[in-house]
Amino acid sequence: MSQAGPRVVVVGESVAGATTVRRLRALGHTGPLTLVGAEPGGGPNRPPLSKHVLDGAQHDDTLGHALDGLDIELVRVAATGLDPAARTLCLADGRALAYDALVLATGAEPRRLAGPGQRGELVLRTLPDAQALRARLDTARSALVVGSGVLGMEVASACARRGVPVTVVDRQPPLERVLGGYLSGLLTARAEAAGIEVLVVDGDVALVGDPVSGLRLPDGTVLSADVVVTCAGDTPCTNWLAGTELAGPHGVHVDEQCRTAVPGIWAVGDVACLDTPCSGRTPFWSQAVAMAGVAAASVLGLPPSGPPTDDYFWTSVAGTSVKAVGPLPVHGPPDDVEGDPDTGNALLTWRHDGGPDTVVAHGRPITAGRLRARSRAGARSSVPAPA
């Protein structure tokens, strides 16, 4: 390692990758720093893709990550392989980058339903994806969305805003996996009031047509639409790590310092799977930022300022915003209600023994900081007073 510090290479111009390089510089790293990204124009900040970009081209130039003034080498070429023993990263243009410390932030890719050779499946992960979908919605008279998770409901909301009749198809009610039944019920009602049809099916669906023109439901019914969008989750981008011990079916496993099992390698964001009591892969923006901060500190041998997890969640369905801090999903009705949930203006609290409350702003304009404070206050109040 040089006297200026380790040569750090971050692979993936995702929010996790961009945050990692910013945190490394903020923590005092003055050594060589390289960010490798596969997208020629740079990786986008993904949340606005479904929340804003589908509404108009004026948002296309607002998605980049702030990298100015960081004194980094920016390499926009795909990583194709890794030699952990030699500590080198292989690139698609034939180059090999040496590193002292490597941070994997290659994110995830959409799970697809199309069969071999079946054309026309629409997904939403990149800016070109969003632009292609937006162009299709310009002339669409109907739309189908497969998946009623966060992305699926945001895409359906964009269709409704643009006056395109849309049906969302899933095995479970909207956002039930993430938020629980009570909040799912509120948001389903808001979606249906906005003209979004929700269809819960018992089994798998299949895309029909070439190019894709509809869905076959488990009972054999075929639904047709001008636009069919698959929002059926994602899979971590680990194919390029084949031949190493890093790639697993659930991503790259890391500990609470975001370290992998291979010395000198960390992983953050959607590609990483935490092997901690709060284990698993959580593909949310707030989690990616939290992991990036921990990894940057760990690379430099510094104590992290917080955990590699963040329980903040935000989405918007049919014009109603939902901000949540605390454990999710929640079960049953809230323990405390301020306002009117049915009109989309409420503050909801679920209390948990021995831990922080889950506090949800349902359509109410409250900052994440205030929600965090209320959640922590619940944790403090649940601690028994000393005898």
Number of helical segments?
8
SSE class: alpha/beta
Ends apart, CA distance between termini: 54 Å
Coarse morphology: globular
Q: Unreliable runs, pLDDT <50, ≥5 residues?
A: 382-387
Query: What is the count of β-strands?
Result: 25
CATH fold name of the largest domain:
FAD/NAD(P)-binding domain
Based on CA atoms alone, the radius of gyration comes out at 22 Å
- CATH top level assignment of the largest domain: Alpha Beta
Domain FAD/NAD(P)-binding: 7-292
Cofactor: FAD
Organism: Goekera deserti
Protein name: FAD-dependent oxidoreductase
List the helices and strands and how they pair.
Elements: E1 8-11, H1 15-26, E2 33-36, H2 47-51, E3 73-75, E4 79-83, E5 88-91, E6 96-98, E7 101-104, E8 108-110, H3 127-139, E9 143-146, H4 150-161, E10 166-170, H5 176-179, H6 181-193, E11 196-200, E12 206-208, E13 214-216, E14 222-224, E15 227-230, E16 234-236, E17 247-248, E18 251-254, E19 265-267, E20 272-274, H7 285-299, E21 312-317, E22 320-325, E23 336-340, E24 345-350, E25 358-362, H8 368-381
Parallel strand pairs: 1-2, 1-7, 2-3, 7-19, 9-10, 9-15, 10-11, 18-20
Antiparallel strand pairs: 4-5, 5-6, 8-16, 12-13, 13-14, 17-18, 21-22, 22-25, 23-24, 24-25
Give a brief rundown of this model.
The protein is an alpha/beta fold and 387 residues long.
Describe this structure in words.
The chain folds into 3 domains: 8-109 and 234-299, FAD/NAD(P)-binding domain, CATH 3.50.50; 112-230, FAD/NAD(P)-binding domain, CATH 3.50.50.60; 319-381, no CATH class. Helices cover 23% and strands 26% of the residues. The chain contains 8 helices and 25 strands. The protein has helices spanning 15-26, 47-51, 127-139, 150-161, 176-179, 181-193, 285-299, 368-381, and strands at 8-11, 33-36, 73-75, 79-83, 88-91, 96-98, 101-104, 108-110, 143-146, 166-170, 196-200, 206-208, 214-216, 222-224, 227-230, 234-236, 247-248, 251-254, 265-267, 272-274, 312-317, 320-325, 336-340, 345-350, 358-362. Strands 3-2-1-7-19 form a 5-stranded parallel beta sheet, covered by helices on one side. Strands 21-22-25-24-23 form a 5-stranded antiparallel beta sheet. A 4-stranded parallel beta sheet has the order 11-10-9-15.
